Amino acid sequence: MMMQLAETPNQKNSLFNAMNRFIGAVNNMDQTIMLPSMLRDVPLDEDRELSSLKSDMDEGDMYSYYQLLKSIRRDIEWGVRCAAADERRKESMKITRMNSSASTSSSASSSSSSLSSSSDDDEEEDEDLEKQFQYHLTGLQGVLSKLTQQANCLTKRYKQEIGIGGWGQ
């Protein structure tokens, strides 16, 4: 379990704190929900906040959300499951092999071009990497924020279902 740290105003938007908030919300959800099976067949349609976060693949009950949130927490804490990572690695190896064999013949002819264009390309690639990083960081923080909200809503809804709606708030 990750230790939760106090946030300073400057760190409020850090990725680390976004992950901490999400993990804390899921831990609270996990500690509050003593009987996850009670969530089966409880539709999300009654809760506007949860149903707005629903994706096409969701089964549409609170139990599926509970399992999904726990799975995402596990992936954040322990890394992506090895089987999925191995499958992606194998797929990228196939693509890399196909691209490298096709580009070998073209790279021989392009290597004789001027070296100054190479340094310009490196600068553009560095700038692109920074833009890509910022784009994905912003997206990840947005997703973690929505998932945190989802975990908090699910916890609140569970309390309402079992009749302790106002406790612990």
Percent helix: 55-70%
Overall shape: elongated
Query: What's the pLDDT, averaged over the residues?
Result: 76
Instruction: Note the total helix count.
Output: 5
Structural description of this entry:
The chain has helices at residues 15-32, 48-52, 62-78, 82-110, 116-162. The protein is an all-alpha fold and 169 residues long. Helix 1 (15-32) crosses helix 3, helix 1 (15-32) packs parallel to helix 5 (116-162) and helix 3 crosses helix 5. The radius of gyration is 23 Å and the shape is elongated. The model is unreliable at 103-114 (pLDDT under 50).
Features:
169 residues, mainly alpha
Briefly summarize what is shown.
With 169 residues, the protein is mainly α. It is built from five helices and no strands.
Topology:
Blueprint: H1 15-32, H2 48-52, H3 62-78, H4 82-110, H5 116-162
Helix pairs in contact: 1-3, 1-5, 3-5
